[in-house]
Amino acid sequence: MKKLIHKKSVFTIGLFFMICSVQAQFETLRFPKDTFTTDTMQVNTAQTKTQVIYKAYKQIAYVSKPTDVNYQSLDVYVPVRVGGNSIDASNAPIILYILSENFMSVSASADAQVRAQPQTTTAKALNSEQAQVALAQGFVVVVPACRGSEIRNTNGQFTGKAPASIVDLKAAVRYIRHNKGVLPGNTNRIVALGCGSGGGLAALLGTSGNNSLYTPYLQELAAAQTTDNIFAVACYAPNIDLEHADMAYEWQFGTVPLKKAMVNQNISRQLIALYAGYVEGLALQGKDGFGRITVENLQKYLLVHYIFPAAEEFLNQLPAEKRDAYLAENPWILYSNKKVSFSFNDYVMHVGRSKSVPAFNGIDLKQPEAQLFGSPTVNARHFTTFTHQLTNTNKQAVLDKELLKIIGMMNPMNFIEVSQNCAQHWWLRNSSSNNEIPLTPMIQFATSLENNQKSVNCRLNWNAENCSDAQSEKLMQWVKSIQ
């Protein structure tokens, strides 16, 4: 009888401490709804300049056990008056604005760890047209800090190598959902927004919702015990599918000189040959009855469905005088009856090449992507078998299994077909003149999403900046329209 009582007492004590632990985490991760400042901004819209009055909640930790709260906190901006009208944002879409550049960190304030580059802070978001227009539309804007590849602790160890950034963003989503009904906005309408590496992380966040691969990392941070899938994603120039980016870059730019000199054509041709096998293996079906996309018809698919439409939209909206001047400067473009025609080679020569070979996993390990896949004690590592073998005396050398796992965790392409929690709605944009990343990763990503019955709005913008298509209001109208 005494033994039974003893076991029952131990169980009761254990249950008590478990409840206390859960309660403590809940209190730690409670959104401070009464702690904010109020500010005003003027937002330029297509019609007029609009005054927006908003509440700002700053530097809120989104995990219970942060490695550094400077990189694991978020800011929340909530509109209360727009153009003199009161706003109830309690059920508004939530824009999760991801500021990551070159897979580096975003901090909440002055830096607490050792960095090699200038600081990007969450406050930068309010300078962007997209965040401003979102607030003017009555949306809630959440800006998460996150760890990145360059930060070190006081012992000199790197603390933000992959998969730290995506783990942090998932934890931020969980924090938002954990505070449903307290944090303003509709937690079922979270829309991730980012450009470049931020766009790549947004895409990964959108495809890998609730995947168990990330669970141990989230538990280590004591992230909120809820879900991290999101409703929609808006990516600009997303840097994705890094394992195959060197191949894709050579396929597009392999015969284009870099500063009037050709890159190593032997390496370039090898990568192009590898890319052909990758394209065939994807077995993607083109839209509008195009059929299966192969390496032989890939140029045609890009031209017909993305490049020509971008050029036509640009030229057709120009006044006749400016259009004639542009065509005179670019005689490789044939224009008639509001339609264009030109070769893929002429197009890529016009865009030009900006990177050496291999473009993303270079021999010198100086690329942001190689630094992303470093370790706590190593700044950068080769992350493709091709470059690993190219730089190794053992030409059969293979990548470390743990590194391969992490590489897979950073590629949104890997989750589309297997995920039950992939975002349903996608807005994908890139500039036609982007020579920092190849065109095909985004378009193959979009096609894979389409093949898996996702709603995709994907296009190129002719001669636009990589991170903007001057359509912030159209983007926000899209957010309003999707269900």
Task: List the keywords.
483 residues; two-stranded antiparallel ribbon; 10-stranded mixed sheet; globular; disordered N terminus; alpha/beta
The tally of helices reads: 15
What value does the average pLDDT take?
93
Q: Which regions contain 5 or more consecutive residues with pLDDT less than 50?
A: 1-5, 10-22
Write down the Rg.
24 Å
How would a crystallographer describe the biggest sheet? 10 strands, mixed
In terms of DSSP E residues, the strand content is 15-25%
Shape label: globular
- Annotation, overall tally of beta strands: 14
What structural category arises from helix and sheet content? alpha/beta
Strand and helix order? HEEEEEHEHEHHEHHEEHHEEHHHHEHEH
Which percent bin holds the helix content? 25-40%
First-last Cα distance: 60 Å
Description of the molecule:
This protein has 483 residues and is an alpha/beta fold. Helix content is 36%, strand content 16%. The protein has helices spanning 2-28, 129-136, 164-178, 197-207, 215-220, 245-253, 265-282, 298-316, 320-329, 344-351, 368-372, 385-390, 401-409, 440-451, 472-481, and strands at residues 37-44, 49-61, 73-82, 85-86, 94-98, 140-144, 190-195, 232-236, 285-286, 291-292, 334-336, 339-341, 425-431, 455-461. The strands form three sheets. Strands 1, 2, 3, 4, 5, 6, 7, 8, 13 and 14 form a ten-stranded mixed sheet that branches. α2 (129-136) packs across α15 (472-481) and α6 (245-253) crosses α7 (265-282). The protein is globular, with a radius of gyration of 24 Å. Residues 1-5 and 10-22 have low confidence and may be disordered.
